[in-house]
Structures are given as structure tokens and as C-alpha cells.
Amino acid sequence: MDPKVTKSIVPTNVGLQLANIAPQSFNLLTKYQITRWLELGGQTVYASKIEGGSLLAANGGIAYPGVPNPTFLPSYWRFDVFTEARINAYSSLKFAGQNLSNKTYYDSLYQSSQPFVKVAPGRAFYLSLVFNFNKL
């Protein structure tokens, strides 16, 4: 991707990279049905370094006069797994694990009078009981 500002009411933002969008990203999701009632899957997510900035443009424009001085968030990989067991035709039990390596990575970086970053969730596990009312 080449995420650039193409139109803006602030002329100095045009041509700047959009803030908090990874120019390169990759997502691979796979699911395998082991039996009629059990499925296993996994997901790999990659995002290249992300240029932080304001709500729109990355490190430039009216909020950052002069030549932009980019601040980047590092690239990251994330690995997830999940399983689903069907209980009957109307319900299933799902278990998921996200960010298995528990690596710290960041969702976004905002530069303003009070700069801040959003830290992505660490390792997390979820157990869900799902009911399908469409089959009733």
C-alpha cells in the first residue's frame, strides 16, 4: 500500500503518508476441520513499521510546520490460535489465544500537545459459548 493524503483542507498535508497505517502488512488465517464437530486454526499477522502523527497526516502538515520529522512504531509479528467444538446443531464452544508470544507491540502513535501511543493487547485467551438462533 501507499497510504498518502490525496486531498485535504490543509494543503501541506497533501502527499504526506497517512498516520498509523502500515505500508506493508500480511495476514494468513487457516482453519482445519479435524472431525465433524472439531476445528482447529491459526493466524499470523505482520505489520511493517508505522509512521505516527496526527489524526490524519503522518508527522507533517499544519500541526508540524517545516520538514516532517517522522517518528515510527516498530514492525511486528503476531501469532494466534483457535479451536471450535460443536456441541449440537445450535451451539458450539470456542477457545482462542491471541498474541501467543506475548510480544509488546503498538497499535498507533499520536503526536499532539500530549503525545501518546496505544499499546496492543498482550497475550490473551478467550472462551465463548455460541448459540446459533438462525437454525431454530
Describe this structure in words.
The protein has 136 residues and is mainly beta. It has one domain (11-135). 0% of the residues lie in helices and 45% in strands. It has no helices and 9 strands. It has strands at residues 25-33, 38-47, 50-51, 72-73, 76-88, 91-98, 106-110, 116-119, 124-131. It has a 5-stranded antiparallel sheet, with no helix packed on it. The chain has a two-stranded antiparallel ribbon with strand order 3-4. A hairpin with a 2-residue loop joins strand 5 (76-88) and strand 6. The protein is elongated. The N and C termini lie far apart (44 Å).
- Give the count of structural domains: 1
Q: What is the helix content? A: under 10%
Number of E strands: 9
What are the secondary-structure elements, in order, as H or E? EEEEEEEEE
Short structural summary:
This protein has one domain (11-135). It contains no helices and 9 strands. The chain has strands at 25-33, 38-47, 50-51, 72-73, 76-88, 91-98, 106-110, 116-119, 124-131.
